[in-house]
Q: What sequence folds into this?
């Protein structure tokens, strides 16, 4: 029997510990092909490179690096490595840190999984929390990724139904919770400084996320020791609003008349 093909990528770079942990966790399930950025691409979301050439480099058995974004990696994987053949599943991660709430909109880890899903590939983004000096929970996250992918390969259709985002806590895991995103938002300050020529430049200041602390959210699940698993909506059309205005062109027809 042909082995399943599992594509992995990330936004932390091909050298990241989390990516290697993911490969180790998924290798017993099939052929794992890694196509990841050549440098850290955290926070690039769904960015794609269209104005510069991309380089695909072989860095080991079934391991490649791309001089671009996580989304670029999916395109190069499909057309530069797999010759248009879709893998059985795609996993993005293991991210060094959490992607909770509105972090998902910024995340390159989620961006890679999003792109894979739009190509018809069952996709999962997975992130590991940290426990002080103990480091990131890569071992926990690897076990979770293994369980979810194994379930998918054995016939459970859930990974193919939508894009999934998982966050894995350190320490003993209490279980899984399928939950909505918290309204965690990116709260930062802008630090202004002067370069040696006296010209101003700016740094994004400390990242201080703010949580609503609602029940039944990804943050609440994670805080209580559960793996938070959130189905993300890829279809961007707001159908309720579409339904309202497609049968009644107000106020748009009025604007045209003016």
A:
């Amino acid at each position: 029997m042909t082995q399943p093909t599992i594509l992995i990528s990330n936004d932390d770079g091909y050298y990241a510990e989390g990516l290697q942990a993911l490969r180790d966790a998924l290798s017993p399930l099939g052929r794992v092909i890694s196509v990841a950025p050549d440098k850290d691409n955290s926070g690039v979301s769904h960015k794609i490179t269209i104005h510069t050439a991309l380089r695909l480099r072989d860095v080991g058995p079934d391991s490649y690096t791309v001089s671009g974004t996580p989304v670029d990696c999916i395109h190069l994987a499909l057309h530069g490595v797999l010759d248009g053949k879709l893998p059985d599943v795609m996993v993005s991660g293991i991210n060094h840190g959490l992607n909770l709430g509105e972090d998902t909109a910024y995340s390159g880890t989620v961006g890679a999984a999003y792109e894979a899903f739009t190509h018809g590939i069952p996709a999962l983004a997975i992130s590991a929390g940290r426990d002080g000096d103990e480091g990131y929970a890569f071992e926990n996250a690897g076990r979770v990724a293994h369980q979810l992918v194994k379930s998918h390969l054995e016939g459970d259709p859930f990974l193919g139904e939508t894009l999934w985002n998982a966050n894995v806590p350190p320490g003993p895991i209490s279980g899984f919770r399928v939950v909505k995103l918290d309204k965690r938002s990116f709260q930062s300050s802008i630090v202004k400084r002067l370069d040696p020529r006296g010209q101003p430049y700016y740094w994004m200041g400390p990242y201080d996320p703010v949580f609503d602390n609602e029940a039944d959210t990804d943050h609440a699940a994670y805080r209580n020791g559960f793996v938070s698993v959130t189905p993300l909506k890829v279809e961007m059309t707001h159908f309720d609003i579409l339904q309202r205005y497609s049968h009644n062109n107000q106020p748009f027809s009025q604007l045209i008349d003016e």
Observations:
- The chain is about 30% helix and 25% strand.
- The first helix runs from residue 17 to 26.
- The longest strand covers residues 89-96.
- The chain has one domain: 5-183+212-257.
